[in-house]
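Weekly sync, protein design subgroup
Attendees: M.S., D.O., the rotation student, P.L. (late)

Item 1: inverse folding check
M.S. brought a backbone from last month's batch and wanted to see whether the design step gives back something sensible before we order anything. D.O. pointed out we never logged the input encoding, so this time it goes straight into the notes. Structure tokens as presented (162 positions):
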């Protein structure tokens, strides 16, 4: 099975996903070794290329933290932007956010708005992430603007360095 590593912190931290974009693990590059956590198992390698080869992982060409130019947001739910036209919209009171599906018949829910999500040792930004990702990880949000989210990302990653 082909896996994809998406860069979160340039040249230091990657999220490993399968073809359905489900998070399976992480890769952390440290001065002494490369640590791979995949499906709950931990592995150490001397270099990044060996880690990728051993697990049949390719890398994403574009780091997640370096977003494409801002796009016009055309859809909203209660003031929170969404990537797609929302179907089956609802408010999850236990998680405190609006969620929706991308199609009328879909069962995969996405959260409206911008978020910061904690993966292993760092916070990452997300726009309309899957609800399952938020349920599996610590997060902050929703935020109504990208600027508000990026400020919180800076604050939370700054707290982790201290």
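Designed sequence read out in the meeting:
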């Amino acid at each position: 099975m082909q896996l994809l590593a998406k860069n979160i912190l340039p040249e230091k931290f990657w999220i490993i996903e399968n073809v359905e974009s489900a998070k399976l693990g992480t890769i952390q590059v440290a001065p002494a070794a490369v640590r791979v956590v995949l499906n709950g198992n931990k592995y150490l390698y001397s270099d990044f290329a060996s880690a990728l080869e051993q697990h049949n992982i390719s890398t994403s060409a574009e780091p997640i933290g370096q977003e494409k130019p801002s796009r016009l947001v055309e859809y909203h739910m209660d003031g929170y932007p969404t990537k797609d036209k929302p179907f089956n919209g609802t408010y999850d009171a236990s998680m405190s956010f609006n969620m929706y599906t991308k199609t009328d018949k879909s069962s995969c829910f996405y959260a409206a708005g911008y978020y910061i999500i904690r993966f292993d040792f760092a916070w990452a930004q997300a726009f309309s992430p899957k609800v399952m990702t938020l349920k599996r990880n610590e997060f902050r949000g929703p935020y109504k603007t990208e600027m508000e989210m990026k400020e919180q990302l800076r604050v939370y990653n700054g707290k982790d360095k201290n």
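Discussion: Confidence is low (pLDDT under 50) at residues 63-69. Helices lie at 48-55, 131-136, 146-161.
Action: P.L. to compare against the previous round before Friday.
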